[in-house]
Amino acid sequence: MTIDRSRIEEENQIRLSWHESDLAHAVDVVDRSGVDAEAVIVEVARFSAAAPSWAVGTGGTRFGRFPGGGEPRDTFEKVDDIAMLNALTGANRTVSLHVPWDDPGLGAGAAALRRHAEELGIGFDAMNSNTFQDNPSTTDDRTVSYKFGSLANVDDGARRAAVEHNRYVIELGVELGSRALTVWLADGMNHPGQASFRGQFERVLAGLGEIYAHVPDDWEMYTEHKPYEPAFYSSVNNDWGTSLLLAQGTGDRVKCLVDLGHHLPNTNIEQVVSRLAMVGRLGGFHFNDSKYGDDDLTVGSITPFQLFLIVGELLEAGGGQMPAAAYMIDESHNLKDPLEDLIQATDALQVALAQALCVNRTDLADAQRANDPARAAEVLHRGFRTDVRPLVAEARRRNGAALEPLATFRAVGYRAAVTAARGADSVATGL
Amino acid sequence: MTIDRSRIEEENQIRLSWHESDLAHAVDVVDRSGVDAEAVIVEVARFSAAAPSWAVGTGGTRFGRFPGGGEPRDTFEKVDDIAMLNALTGANRTVSLHVPWDDPGLGAGAAALRRHAEELGIGFDAMNSNTFQDNPSTTDDRTVSYKFGSLANVDDGARRAAVEHNRYVIELGVELGSRALTVWLADGMNHPGQASFRGQFERVLAGLGEIYAHVPDDWEMYTEHKPYEPAFYSSVNNDWGTSLLLAQGTGDRVKCLVDLGHHLPNTNIEQVVSRLAMVGRLGGFHFNDSKYGDDDLTVGSITPFQLFLIVGELLEAGGGQMPAAAYMIDESHNLKDPLEDLIQATDALQVALAQALCVNRTDLADAQRANDPARAAEVLHRGFRTDVRPLVAEARRRNGAALEPLATFRAVGYRAAVTAARGADSVATGL
Amino acid sequence: MTIDRSRIEEENQIRLSWHESDLAHAVDVVDRSGVDAEAVIVEVARFSAAAPSWAVGTGGTRFGRFPGGGEPRDTFEKVDDIAMLNALTGANRTVSLHVPWDDPGLGAGAAALRRHAEELGIGFDAMNSNTFQDNPSTTDDRTVSYKFGSLANVDDGARRAAVEHNRYVIELGVELGSRALTVWLADGMNHPGQASFRGQFERVLAGLGEIYAHVPDDWEMYTEHKPYEPAFYSSVNNDWGTSLLLAQGTGDRVKCLVDLGHHLPNTNIEQVVSRLAMVGRLGGFHFNDSKYGDDDLTVGSITPFQLFLIVGELLEAGGGQMPAAAYMIDESHNLKDPLEDLIQATDALQVALAQALCVNRTDLADAQRANDPARAAEVLHRGFRTDVRPLVAEARRRNGAALEPLATFRAVGYRAAVTAARGADSVATGL
Amino acid sequence: MTIDRSRIEEENQIRLSWHESDLAHAVDVVDRSGVDAEAVIVEVARFSAAAPSWAVGTGGTRFGRFPGGGEPRDTFEKVDDIAMLNALTGANRTVSLHVPWDDPGLGAGAAALRRHAEELGIGFDAMNSNTFQDNPSTTDDRTVSYKFGSLANVDDGARRAAVEHNRYVIELGVELGSRALTVWLADGMNHPGQASFRGQFERVLAGLGEIYAHVPDDWEMYTEHKPYEPAFYSSVNNDWGTSLLLAQGTGDRVKCLVDLGHHLPNTNIEQVVSRLAMVGRLGGFHFNDSKYGDDDLTVGSITPFQLFLIVGELLEAGGGQMPAAAYMIDESHNLKDPLEDLIQATDALQVALAQALCVNRTDLADAQRANDPARAAEVLHRGFRTDVRPLVAEARRRNGAALEPLATFRAVGYRAAVTAARGADSVATGL
Question: Fewest CB within a 10 Å sphere: which of A284, A427, B213, D50?
């Protein structure tokens, strides 16, 4: 599936004159508020969020899954899809692999996948290991199971298998050119009394230490917390406090990863971000949105103002720029076309970033120093209410991408083409 | 305190040329999406939300209260403040009284207050009764207490006093020109087993019936639900389902009032609004925002997208216009200057209304008919991301109010003037 | 798999002398509080909760599933397992089928299954239809999908298929001797704007009406609400208020079913139960427990006091007895042996029932009439803190079941026997 | 008000024969499960929880307060009430003062109060400072206000006043014989953008450091987290992770205090307890119960099973005994008689402790090592379902207290006596 960039350009041409008029006005409005509109565009253009390999297929719940047509049949096709996505957004320049769902194999397999991705301009972001499912193909010993946990399990065999799996994922990542490992564990309890909180924590900490011994010096490792699901009484790495203890206890290059859906009701997530940044342990992000739990909905589709505040804290941590971190979109595309959902997610991220950049942080700091919350709110909302779509479109245009990615995606007929090529019944691996 | 309209006009002049340029572009952008920008302005200009009499004073929590300067010393001064608010926003044309905090007395007192308000162009919205505090001044019998509830109390005296108080509030409202009574009850339980759920419900239903007998034919009566606080195990009117049963069981002109902070975590409030509108029982709104519970924060300051969706449901119910209902702002101004908080709340409401009006509902319905959630999201976000501030400012301008109400409020020096007149230590009645 | 009742009796003999001493003391303690201990035993012995056919297999989450050994390979074996369960508890006398997971087919198939169950003393409780998954085997037309809903879908074909499926389930139920249909719908939205709240509601109401037309006169039909999952922005039947509107709008024999895990955080479920009972629409119960969402954990394992209060409301509704309703256990047995989990669930239910029966309701009513919450709490906790295990064991013994069901289950070696017979890799249908 | 111990003894005599029979059976049941019943009694008898000085008055909410009769008029009378409480429970041997609500003054005042308490057998537990209200009497400079925070305030004067107030409270505590300072701060934000998360944290950390410099070497200092209220967008010390960072950043003798009502919905509090104990920073407890937020309801009245699990974690941390920590009851007695509420709270704590001690921890550890959650649940529930009331009563009896404290409190007529002495309209200071 070759991406026809001339078609994208054609679509842009249709929209160009409106874009230029809208852009001129947006620059005016933003400059007037004391913010450099050009700098906003540049920073938005610089930003990129990885797409996970599993996200180009249809997602599901325990109650069912309704696949669409043309799902990628292997990891190569997944990279193809992400390259198409990036052609439209200019802001998804890497893929994040999940092993064993996407395992090209060491050596020739990894080399071929890396070559394929490089040809399409796609790099490899953080590697994701999976010890929440039994994967017979990668486990010699069928008596080992993660049913009662992986690193937290009282069973030595399960713990060893989990460490070994992570070691393999690191090795694969090295061959692919990745620079980080994300460890999300499903370990926990469904039943009070099932295990010792402290025992589980200590076993996980020890296991992370063993894994960390395999992490190359120029890599980072991320611990990702989640309060519940699939463990429904407690999770071992349940909140940012625990995640921080695990990271601090494991090593200097271990940081915490924040998934926007992994929080108890009413959590002030932007404060969590600020805390982790403050102690120098903010390592990565999984972007999505949610109303109830880990709903994995489209980024910015439920609480866009919260997203704006979170991005604001990131800019705070980065001194006005998005700090270096492993940014990834992590949604479950149950109803929307997966690529369309990723397009909307990336757009929402860029919009939130532009809005946050449009906040005059000098004015905000002044209001804060004066204990003047009404003025602070005016400054904040001035950024949020700005129509930044022209700035975002311009950032995309400069990256050679689409002014309007979703409309362009539909216009170029990508889904129909891949459905023809891959079939209507192909099903991508993943959740 | 006379409002100097020429000062407001002066401030508008400073901003006029920018406003005109911004407005022209906004009209362009909105018209281009198939929505009539002029109609948006007209509908925003038509909208008004009452200010409650208790909201012009500083609010507090059980942990303390920090009054500011120049708080109104009586109901007349409260009306003065609301008239100033309305002069700036053009969208707070009524006051909602809370008795006995604001009780002018029947006869001459009520007549004088009504005259004062009319001179300032302020009308009287829904009356609010208070049976959640003991009010010795209005109760002859000191042995009667609402400690264990008012209408739900097993004690006959308490129930009778509560009905009687509501009757008085209605009578007062008739003299003031109000047309509705809002009944919010604190009744419930702090302790499992303290009372019978069913017994409490039936006593409340009976009490509402007695009150309704006093409600004039051209009035409406509203039942307002709240899940908890001050009752911390259960409230009698705890959710919209109960509120609906009470309204249906009491009479045709009894409707349900929705306070945005009176919901359990993660409640889909816009769906609640749709349900009540569907059964013809949506009667009123208390606007505020919250992150945790009944936080009574500035409208639109925490979840502006949810507010936009809620207003969208109201437009759905009203066939593209805000349906007739008792709209009120209900915040607790603990930190911000009360009038500034009300200005920001009203502005946020107008912004949300304008955004919701900017959604092309024909396009949305098309996407819905096609089971196309990605397109539906595009249509929805096109409205939400529009910079509607110029449209809102224009609506205010046409109402003779301020282009930028907060800046204008500060420029005209109202707070300093009332502090000089009323003193720095005046404390308004209320929570 | 024949159940050897003499082995159960043997196990009981081992425990008998302790049981008799404990029972004598429990009767003493309970009688002393003014409650008739014998009546408690009789009512506990009378109570039964259905086991769902899908619950005898291992459950899972979207993140994985870890089957154990000896899972039933077909519906006949599922009934075998439930008969074993009932032999131990004496309180699971019916099975609740889920179609198409368990579809014996009309005619000979249904007759054979019914005969098999009757031989084992098992009856058929409410039938469950499934329109939340596409089931190609039962749908002729592959173009029909429930991806965007079943009864709520804008697509006529999907709605027709859903009605038709329910009609089939009713027909099957009639042949099996069932007397009720439970309709749980996954219909809702994942994305704001995806559909009209009102449109979805009205289509569901219409669809329920069509289904109800097929419901025999001596049957009941249940609407089951759930706030979210698998729909993550909104569900059509999202709360008890909506469920009640649907039931009232459909017909007299339509009632609401309460699943203990289908509530927003902090919901007062016992109050929901009281409300539905009050309006005569409480039809059924799905028992389980949860800490976060629809966790489907062991009944009484997280919030046993809440369970006790809920059962108390049922007794209130039933005039001191459990009212007639479709009681079912609905758990997901992800970690525990499914039969062991069901044993513990049934035991927890019996314990809660006995505790609630041990509350002296006359004393409680006295305290309520006196506005004396401290005394009410004493009365309530006197029931809850009573060690009712001997009363429950006695109720089981009188039903010919086990004094200690879990220990007995392990002692008789049922799991090992069925694993030998069915194999270690058998996987039951279900979630 | 002298406590007549002979009256308590008299009441015990009435209940003695039943007690002895119940106790004998309870010892039997517990011993049979492999737990030493005598050791349970001894540990329950050893346990004590402080009563806060403000808790002997009626509590309230922002919506009102309904005082009862005979409230203590000063700190001396508060100590009298707590002595009475302790006479009944034998488990409230200390009082925890809140300054300035209860400020005897340095020197003679403190000495007199200490003498009075010692005569009644009451000691002084952790001191509580108050910087969430402006207290003109203790602040020379009226221009200083905590409206925008105390230690977190950008205003130097407010920060200095807060440090100074804490220094004073420590000094007072030294004179009274206390050994710890609890710092709960209301600092936070009501409005996004109002302050810098990081700036607020760093100012609080610096302020705690200044306070800690005044803390004597044999004292401890506690940081108490709370997610919200009175700050409704964010609190500075919002969760255990932040509390831990503050404690670790301040000094070795700074530990974290856990209030059971200070958690987001669905928080696994027992896990929080385990984490803090694991890192050696669990310093204190405020016991209460809640359904929604910081409801401050009677201990064990809503989630007694959770309380049992929390106490189980404490025993885990203490090697089978309650570890040394500052245990306090922290309720708001809005409806019940304050002393009756404290009696029920203490009883509920003792019951939970006895149940947790009745869990055979060797059996539990065995089940955990075997990944056998069903067996673990059996062991856990065996403890929880035991009727431990006779063991608790025996522990009280050995401490010279009442077998049935609430009934005894009513029988001896304490409330009537103090109402006669203090008047029906006395109002204790506090919330």
Answer: B213
Which 250-279 residues of chain D touch chain A by CB within 8 A? 264-268, 270-271, 274-275, 277-279
| Predicted pLDDT at B425 | 83
Task: Quickly list DSSP for D77-137.
Answer: HHHHHHHHHHHHHS---EEE-EETTT---TTHHHHHHHHHHHHTT-EE--EEE--SS--GG
Element (H, E) at B240: helix B240-250
Of A81, A26, A18, nearest to A51 (Cα)?
A81
C209, C252 Cβ separation under 8 angstroms: no
Per-residue pLDDT, C139: 53
Residue identified by tokens 């009578």 is B171
Mean pLDDT for chain A overall: 96
* Contact flag B387-A336 (C-beta cutoff 8 Å): no
Q: Which residue of A lies nearest to C233 if distances are taken between CA atoms?
A: A291
CA distance C152 to C155: 9
Chain C residues whose CB is inside 8 A of the B241 CB are 239-242, 244, 275
Q: Does pLDDT of A424 surpass 90?
A: no
Pair of tokens at residue C49: 């909760």
Contacts of D367 in chain A (CB under 8 A): 193
Q: Is the pTM of this model over 0.90?
A: yes
The alpha carbon of B229 is separated from its chain's Cα centroid by a whole number of angstroms, namely: 19
Position D299 scores a pLDDT of: 98
ipTM over the 0.95 cut-off: yes
Q: Does D168 touch chain A (CB under 8 A)?
A: no
Q: Answer whether C348's CB lies under 8 Å from C92's CB.
A: no
| Of C386, C389, C339, C358, the residue nearest C15 (C-alpha) | C389
Pairing type for strands A60-61 and A64-65 reads: antiparallel
Task: Say what the pLDDT of residue A224 is.
Answer: 98
Sheet-wide strand order for D326-329? D98-99, D127-129, D180-184, D220-224, D254-259, D282-287, D326-329
Q: What is the pLDDT of residues D350-396, one digit of tens each?
A: 999 999 999 999 999 999 999 999 999 999 999 999 999 999 999 99
* Residue in C266, C341, C386 closest to D265 by CB: C266
Beta bridge partners of C289: C297
What pLDDT, in 10s, does the model give residues A109-151? 999 999 999 999 999 999 999 999 987 555 556 679 999 999 9
Write out the DSSP string of A409-431: HHHHTHHHHHHHHH-SS---S--
Cβ atoms of D399 and D45 closer than 8 Å = yes
Residue-wise over C394-410: b if at least 16 C-beta within 10 A, else e? bbbbebebbbbbbbbbb
In whole angstroms, give the CA distance from residue C308 to residue C261: 15
Indicate the SS3 state at residue B163.
Answer: helix
